[in-house]
Amino acid sequence: MLAARRYRRFPIFSSPSALLNTLAMQAPLLLLVAFFGPEVGGHYALADRLCSLPLALVASAVAQVFIAESSRLSRDDPPALRRLFTRTTRSLALTALGPAILLAILAPLLAGPVFGGDWQEAGLYVAILAPMYYLTFVATATGEVLSVLERQDLHLVREILRLGFLGGPILIAAAAGASATGAIAILSAAGCLNYCLYAWISWHAIVTYDPLRRSGGPDETEFLDEGLETAEL
Questions:
Q1: Which of 206, 198, 203 lies closest to 163 in space, CA to CA?
Q2: Is 159 inside a domain boundary?
Q3: pLDDT in tens, 133-151
Q4: What 3-state DSSP class applies to 217?
Q5: Whether the predicted model's global pTM rises above the 0.90 cut
Q6: Whole-angstrom Cα distance, residue 43 to residue 49?
Q7: Residue 47 falls within a domain, yes or no?
């Protein structure tokens, strides 16, 4: 019962967060197909796959190490968690900058020869989306710190924002009569803003973290302590 009470926020907030995350990841493709046709959707899907697969592999590896270390620091040395986050974010930004620039330059040149002339447009989409995926890589590798700090409320807010920033631009572009390339450019700009906010939310959770006020506040901490004392007796 003690564990269920303390961790009740996980299912309450994480279930809708997971649903929103899935919707946000699929929204650009679905909306592009709906408003600009399957050909544009196919070019976007290939561009997304080319950018997201290597990003996901590296980011997940970094995230595993970061989560383990941040879990330890959140208990033993919370101020050091700030330094870890800053150091990791800076390292990711510097490491990914060169490959992101190289990808933006080479993708339009190589997409046609590698995938065929019909897929040349996908290379242009990669170049336009490169800034967004660069910031995605920098921000998401440390994003699970919200789970470590038991800030599922901020996790839900973050996913609501992500759905709006990734789905909204396509609707705006379609309503404004923009071209497919223009819609992708608007999506990339909105995505950059989204992942800057994504990183800021993680940082906000860290700087406002109080080990004595984890999910349930002081009253719940006292409740847990009393329960442990009773169990020992």
A1: 198
A2: yes
A3: 999 999 999 999 998 888 8
A4: helix
A5: no
A6: 10
A7: yes
**What does the DSSP 8-state code read for residue 214?**
S
The reply to whether 233 falls in a domain is: no
CA distance 75 to 211: 7
Question: Which residue, among 57, 55, 188, 41, has the nearest Cα to 128 in the 3D structure?
Answer: 188
CA–CA separation, 183 vs 110, rounded Å? 23
Q: Which amino acid is at 11?
A: P
User: Total domain count for the chain?
Assistant: 1
CA angle (218, 221, 224) in 5-degree steps: 155
| 135 membership: H or E segment, kind and range | helix 120-140
Using DSSP, state whether 133 is helix, strand or coil: helix
| Residue 227, pLDDT above cutoff 80 | no
**Domain carrying residue 147:** 26-210
Structure tokens at 165: 């920033």
Q: Are 145 and 202 in contact (CB under 8 A)?
A: yes
Q: pLDDT tens, 21-40?
A: 888 899 999 999 999 999 99
230 inside domain: no
